[in-house]
From TrEMBL:
Pfam families: 5_nucleotid_C, Metallophos. One of its GO terms (molecular function) is hydrolase activity. Residues 538-551 have a biased composition (Basic and acidic residues). Residues 336-492 form the 5'-Nucleotidase C-terminal domain. GO terms for biological process: nucleotide catabolic process. This is 5'-nucleotidase. Belongs to the 5'-nucleotidase family. The keyword Mitochondrion does not apply. Residues 61-264 form the Calcineurin-like phosphoesterase domain. Keywords: Hydrolase, Nucleotide-binding, Signal. InterPro entries: 5'-Nucleotdase_C (IPR008334), 5'-Nucleotdase_C_sf (IPR036907), 5_nucleotidase/apyrase (IPR006179), Calcineurin-like_PHP (IPR004843), Metallo-depent_PP-like (IPR029052).
Length: 563
């Protein structure tokens, strides 16, 4: 997941802040090591509690963030930024020298900067900040295993990923240690890291990297860590919280620090607290551990978070270390145009219905290629954010179109055009956000998600006339689609009017379209009508949630549109 420019919902932020404020109190007895002695002997228990109270404690601090894709602030400067995070780290260190900084995965990509540097800029940023440990996240493999190995070599901190294995060596990927034991303030803190197995398919770890069962891994490692003297066991994870909860039942773990959902959360499973921050270092998580100096036992924990806002000054040492990226950052913030309305670049919108941005992009392609119509895949609109009214920058162009491609024009028959539209909506009942979803210019169409794939288009007009299946149309699209991408095989072999090598890049066409007027204000105009059993589809809030989080919509006369 990545929402690099989407501000967090104010309600979610408030709720999270309240939860954290309310939950600030330690979770007594939450850790297996601090559970009280046998309850059947109250007198003895009371005595031992009194004893424990007398025992002095040492304080350890764990700072943590997760899912951080850019080192500069997000939400138009309102939150995040690793320069500010570096200042906070130094402030905490000054108060509590027994501090470790942890990152719970996902940082190499996706981002505009990573399209140039493949995540190296983030490694430089974490090195400058003084990160201690990180767990591999699914996005760490977005540029393939070789780039990740290079990034591991560049890191001055330790990557963990005990269940991420390399077929070639039979050992962990990148030879990361299965766990580490770090002595902090005289206490031996053991940390192991695990990553969700679905990374195998959602990212690009390659054929040699595989993922083993996280529960089995915890069962194997935790006793080893204890044997080697670990007094505190911390799981640094990049899993769905449901998987974290299972993990907590597999072995006695004192604390799980996780990530991946981009939602701030606290949970407890089998007595083990699980905590995650949202994303993009919008806030810095802090866990304070109180450990008995004689018994070496974890007595209690406190949880809070430090907001990362403009009130926190940027660490000048961090800024200095990142100076080599100044030119790129300046270039990215150059204005290229202006919008008077929010531009919908959300993935789910662009892959399910007409949006003002997709229609604007399709119009721009059609004009640039001098074609009668345009058809583009909704998946070609990236950034997954809503661009708010105001200046549009080079960064916005690259966020929307991160991958280079060119705008082409091909000759297609009306029959092929219809076939392409059918293909485009053929997953619209089966998936929430199919990348192939057709966004158009010069075309109006209606489709019914309750009809079978291949027979969903119920109406098509081209520039106000009914589609003529026998006629030849000039169609603008991107070179990915004309080459048969996203399953549009019907375009393969079509005669080019503007070929990929002659066409201008999609990024240049979009930039020029942004610059074509003093300001733009694109609107949706009813080019695409989405029907459900003949009627206009209701808003998604009426959807039923499937247990895997996917929406399930029912059609008239059927229990579900889901197969
Ligand atoms: Zn993730």
């Amino acid at each position: 997941m990545s929402f690099p420019f989407r501000p967090p919902s104010p309600l979610a932020t408030l709720l999270a802040a309240l939860l954290l404020a309310a939950g600030c109190a330690s979770l007594p007895g939450s850790a297996p090591t601090s559970s009280p002695a046998a309850e059947s002997r109250p007198a003895e228990n009371a005595a031992s509690e009194a004893e424990q109270e007398e025992e002095p404690t040492v304080t350890l601090t764990l700072l943590h963030v997760n899912d951080v894709y850019q080192f500069t602030p997000v939400d138009f400067g309102a939150r995040g930024g690793l320069g500010r995070l570096s200042t906070l780290r130094k402030q905490v260190l000054a108060e509590s020298p027994n501090t470790l900084f942890l990152m719970a995965g996902d940082t190499l990509g996706p981002s505009v900067e990573s399209t140039f540097h493949k995540g190296k800029q983030m490694i430089d940023a974490w090195n400058a900040l003084g990160l201690d440990f990180a767990v591999l996240g699914n996005h760490e493999f977005d540029f393939g295993p070789d780039v990740m190995l290079e990034r591991i070599r560049e890191s001055r901190f330790t990557w963990l990923g005990a269940n991420v294995m390399d077929k070639k060596t039979g050992r962990t990927f990148g030879e990361t240690p299965p766990f580490v034991i770090r002595e902090v303030g005289g206490v031996k803190v053991g940390i192991f890291g695990v990553l969700l197995g679905k990374t195998k398919y959602s990212s690009k770890p390659g054929p040699d990297v595989y993922f083993t069962d996280t529960c089995a891994k915890a069962r194997e490692l935790v006793p080893q860590m204890r044997k080697q003297g670990a007094q505190i066991i911390i799981g640094l994870t990049h899993l769905f919280v449901a998987e974290d909860k299972v993990l907590a039942r597999c072995a006695p773990i004192d604390l799980i620090i996780g990530g991946h959902e981009h939602v701030m959360m606290q949970a407890v499973s089998n007595g083990t607290p699980i905590i995650k921050m949202s994303s993009e270092a919008r806030e810095l998580g802090r866990v304070t551990l109180h450990v008995g100096t004689q018994s070496g036992k974890l007595k209690s924990m406190d949880f809070d978070m430090l907001p990362v806002t403009p009130e926190v000054p940027e660490d000048p040492a961090f800024a200095k270390a990142m100076r080599e990226y100044d030119a790129m950052m300046a270039e990215l913030s150059q204005p290229v145009g202006r919008t008077r309305v929010p531009l919908d670049a959300l993935e789910e919108s662009n892959r399910s219905h007409e949006t003002n941005l997709a229609s604007f992009v399709a119009d721009a392609y059609r004009q640039a290629a001098g074609a009668e119509v345009a058809l583009i895949n909704g998946g070609s609109i990236r950034s997954d954010s809503v661009l708010r009214p105001g200046p549009l920058t080079r960064r916005d162009v690259l966020a929307i179109h991160p991958y280079p491609g060119s705008v082409v024009s091909i000759e297609v028959s009306g029959a092929v055009l219809r076939q392409a539209l059918e293909h485009g909506v053929s997953r619209s009942a089966e998936e929430t956000d199919p990348g192939r979803f057709p966004q158009v210019s010069g075309i109006q169409y209606a489709f019914d998600v309750c009809r079978p794939p291949g027979d969903r288009i119920v109406r098509v007009t081209v520039n106000g006339e009914p589609l003529d299946v026998k006629r030849t149309y000039s169609l603008a699209t991107n070179s990915y689609m004309s080459g048969g991408g996203d399953g549009y095989s019907m375009f393969k072999g079509a005669k080019y009017r503007v070929s990929p090598d002659k066409g201008r890049t999609t990024q240049d066409v979009l930039r020029d379209a942004f610059a074509s007027a003093e300001s733009i204000a694109p609107a949706t105009t009813g080019r695409i009508e989405r029907l459900r059993g003949g009627a206009r589809e209701l808003a998604r809030k009426d959807d039923k949630e499937h247990e895997d989080g996917k929406h399930v919509l029912s059609c008239p006369g059927t229990a579900s549109a889901h197969p």
